[in-house]
Amino acid sequence: MSAPSIYEQASQLVRLWERKAETAQGRPFAAFADIHESALDIILAVAFGPSEHLNLIRNQLAVVEGTDNPGTPASADEPFVFPHAPAPDEVQAMLTVVETLAVSMQSPVPKLHHWLLRKTRWRKAFATKERVLRAEIHKAVERLATSSNDEEATKCAMDHMILRERAAAKKADRAPAYDTPRMRDELFG
User: Each residue of 9-66: pLDDT tens digit?
Assistant: First the structure.
């Protein structure tokens, strides 16, 4: 299930590097951030499916392609510096939420410290993360509701979760509960 998403994201990274290599004209360029962002794109694509707005490498490729004349370094051995596309707000919020774990783990009172920061400094990031998860769940439910073949429509981990909840609800003779804290927590990790 995840192989097509991994392949697509890796192909985007290759396209980005081809464009950067062409623009740099043989000069070296930094690639670590591209690898990190590509790995994040893979994680998001496997979890939520293909997405235009949650894709860092696609944004970076657009910035590199939109740069008319980035200039050249004085020496052929100096690295070529490309402009960097900022992460979409939704992705930045998710990264902030992930970073909160380190703060909690280093605190002498982790539960209290995390709760306090979540209610103050990180409130917007957590709210954005929840909004994104709810929107992605809603899109998956709609996509699977309009599909004639669930197996062919399944493109990501979230789709499997939706189908699993639908089957459990049918078995228990109840309405499916897709947007629950348990479901969102499982999706986000």
Answer: 999 999 999 999 988 888 888 999 999 999 999 999 999 988 888 899 999 999 998 8
110 phi, psi to nearest 5 deg: -60, -45
Asked whether 167 and 154 are in contact (CB, 8 A), the reply is no
Instruction: Output phi, psi for 75, to 5 deg.
Output: -115, 150
Whether 138 has a pLDDT exceeding 90, the answer reads yes
Determine how many CB atoms are found less than 10 A away from the CB of residue 90. Answer: 19
pTM of the model as a whole: 0.85
Cα gap 71→15, rounded to integer Å: 21
Closest by CA to 178, choosing from 144, 129, 147, 150, is 144
Distance CA(23)–CA(11), nearest Å, equals 18
Contacts of 21 (CB under 8 A, 6+ apart): 29
Are 12 and 26 in contact, with CB atoms under 8 Å apart? no
Q: Do the Cβ atoms of 132 and 47 come closer than 8 Å?
A: no
Of the candidates 19, 65, 58, 20, the residue with the CA atom closest to the CA atom of residue 41: 58
